[in-house]
Design goal:
30% of the residues lie in helices and 27% in strands. It is of the alpha/beta class and 303 residues long.
Length: 303
Amino acid sequence: MRTVYIGTSSFAVTVLEHLARSAHSPALVVTRPDAPRGRGRKLSPPPVAAAARELGLEVEQPHSVNSADARARIAAARPGAVCVCAFGALLREPLLSAHSMLNVHPSLLPRWRGAAPIERAMEAGDARTGVSIMRPTAELDAGPVCAQAVEPIDPGDDFGALSARLAGLGGELLVEALDRRPPFVEQTPEGATFAAKISNEERLLHGDLDAAALERRVRALTPHVGARVALPGGELLGVQRARVAPAGHQVPPPGKLAASDGHLLLGAQDGALELLQVKPAGGHVMDASAYLRGRGAALAEAA
């Protein structure tokens, strides 16, 4: 089947690679315009644009996918289906109704509709998540679903590990849906939850949560967004890996960071979170023990 693929992120790259290896390789890939990225703010293509060119696929990067020009370019590719994954901008009418559309969404809809379904599933302590293939509609992620596959959330998963598995699963499920064309079934409102985009405020670890919830947040934000903790003086310390602190340590007050017997602890509502790997501002990821050799005295005084 002739397809057009619409996507942007690294997650969408994995799905595109599965699609390109199938009998439904896209005649056209549509993605976002180049944008400044990294510390140098150098103008760079989105991950899907770079991957599509490496695969020898034709690429379009319209300012708006909903514009008349973009819609005409998609129609000229004569797709039997338009496949969408992690595009990062809303598709609107008349584009939504112009083609048969399949959207790859990394959750078990109707749970976790929205921009951050993987992060929110991890934060909530869900034992499982998965991928849904659905038809996009004007209401965000509320369209009918034609296929789903389940993926367990392992206790040691961070976003990077879980996202990689879901991307591979999403690519396989999309190809299977194109092969089999299963019927769409409307979502029910029961069990619907919304996965809001991660805010800058949520990246900062406070003492208003219990230690297990803080640990899940660290995993949910690693490595793509990154959790942080405020140091005495206002500097922010990145947190890459953490665990619920075992009993026996002197626990700092909720929200306070302190060194205790060679361990770096953040006070929580029910104990403490032990920081295991951290990233100082402008520095590299390091074990907390190495960080403490330079900052331990100051943190002990602040405890």
